[in-house]
Fold this protein.
Amino acid sequence: MKFPFYIKLASILLCLMGLFTIVYFGQDIIFPLLLSLLFAIILRPVVTFLNRRLRFNHFLAVVIAIVVFVLLFVSVFYFISIQISDMANDWGTIKNNFYFHLEHFQELIRDNFDLSKNEQKRFITSASQGSLDNGKAIVGSTLSSFTDILLTMTLIPIYTFLFLLYQNHFITFLCKLFKPEYHKNLRDVLVHIKIAVQSYVVGLIVEMIGVSILTTIGLYIIGVEYFILLGMITGILNLVPYIGILVAGVISILISLSGSTDLTIIFGVIIVNIIVQLIDNNILVPLFVNSKVQINALVSIVGIIIGNVLGGITGMFLAIPIIAIFKVIFDRVETMKPWGYLMGDDLPKTFEWHKIKIPHYHYDNSTASINFNYDNNPVIPEDTIEDSDKNNISNRFD
């Protein structure tokens, strides 16, 4: 059945509205499932290795993979907690440095805006009065959020275990949804989704380790006291594309100021972050992250913003893998190939050095077989053109 364009458009918009509504109101259920599915795809090679090489049965291989996965996360957070406890032991010094910088900041405001310290204190007291009145609500919401986080952290390993345990069951279910003649395409889609997600996440892990090491070395050189903690925080927050590194920079500056009375350390932290980002964006990301997931920056940013609206930090982290999955599907469905092309990155690569590709931002050498050099002259059907006019038309377009 063929429908008019406006009916197709209305149907697409209604489906998108329904999908976003379901995701927004069901994020507490959907996002833990998506995270678990992502971790299950990552751990699948570990389970396969234990099955085929070490001859473990499937259940035992899944249990070992989940235990290693949980221990890895616990060890990372335990190391971070040790670093935070070391910083907490210096709480007296941090508080004195904070008041030192606060006093200088108040003097700066007094000199430039003609506001005395008493006036500033009254302004801060009046502004914080509403916050004090809502203190109980804030504490209640904080405890509720903490409870939700604990519940999610408990459910994710369970979901991941079940996804790995029933992986063949789910693949058989997908095969039953489609006719046998489409099974070859289905297998191709599943294989490429696995490759894209695994390559992206493994690349993110390598990038996180590289950014953490580079930031730690840079902060150590400029003399920041808690350089190991800040390096790890920067690497972890860098997992959230585009926005995480900005938050990490602000946190690094605040903690650095709390550990020292020297204001010049701000410039050192900023320079370190800029140098690390240049190395990250020009070496680590093209080499490890973008090797399999070719998504253009505009789609990535819009997807991250939508993910933030729908699911906060978790949605921002899941945005790129979900877009990569959609792109794999769109590229293999005939009617959706234009959308897959729109999500991709078609800028031609004109220079390559040690697998690092530098794009040349010009579409004259693009892989798209479209001629963008056109004018506003109408296209005239061939059968209506007289022989005497064909040469003139040809010369005009040449």
Summary: Strands lie at 349-353, 356-359. The longest strand covers residues 349-353. Residues 135-139, 360-398 have pLDDT under 50 and may be disordered.
